[in-house]
Amino acid sequence: MSDNPDKISFGTRLRNSFLTGLIICAPLVITSWLIWTFIHWADSWVKPYIPLHYNPEEYLQFAIPGLGLLIAVIFITLIGLLGSNLIGQWVVTFTESVLNRTPLVRPIYKGVKQIFETVLKENSSSYRKVGLIEFPGPGTYAMVFIADEAKGELAARFNEMGQEMVAVFLPPTPVPTAGFLLFVPKDKIIPLDMTPEDAAKLLLSGGLVTPDFKERAEPVA
């Protein structure tokens, strides 16, 4: 067999072409499948509640993918607009007061609402920063999403110990939706410049997809 790197066998070229095609096609197919699945999931939830005489599919005689998702987005936006005026605020306040007085519903509603308010509010910094902590032991580092400083009873207990603790989420690889909530001393967290999206790609790929990095410019003396 020749050692000349320019002479590549037909089998090697065929394998390289297949791998190149796989790298091109697989992300497109998987992304398309995920989007299509989400659209069908949204349609299956919304379409059954659309009155037949308001459903354009009854007149067109064919299915419209994404119709349910579009109606859901419009409906949620209208609810948001109504909730911003006085009458809408009164309705929301009255509904919340009823839910807060219902024994089994109250803890579920309050917990879910608090999560959405914390994650979606514009000035929230929760899970928008990425860092490193020593885990599971000294000299070994794990990537975490930084939530917020400890509050309430936890903050009081940590203050008694003279520690300023920060809540972080430690996701596993390659399924970052599950993980551990840890409280780590603030000075033990190494902040990173990468975005949460880049960190998620790194986790999902098991370290194979590394985000681009530009060295910080040295401050001018």
Automatic annotation (TrEMBL):
InterPro entries for this protein: COV1-like
Keywords: Membrane, Transmembrane, Transmembrane helix
Pfam families in the cross-refs: DUF502 (PF04367)
Domain of life: Bacteria
Bilayer-spanning residue ranges: 18-39, 59-82
PANTHER family documented for this protein: COV-LIKE PROTEIN 1, PROTEIN LIKE COV 2
Name the UniProt record assigns to this protein: Putative membrane protein
UniProt source species: Allorhizobium borbori
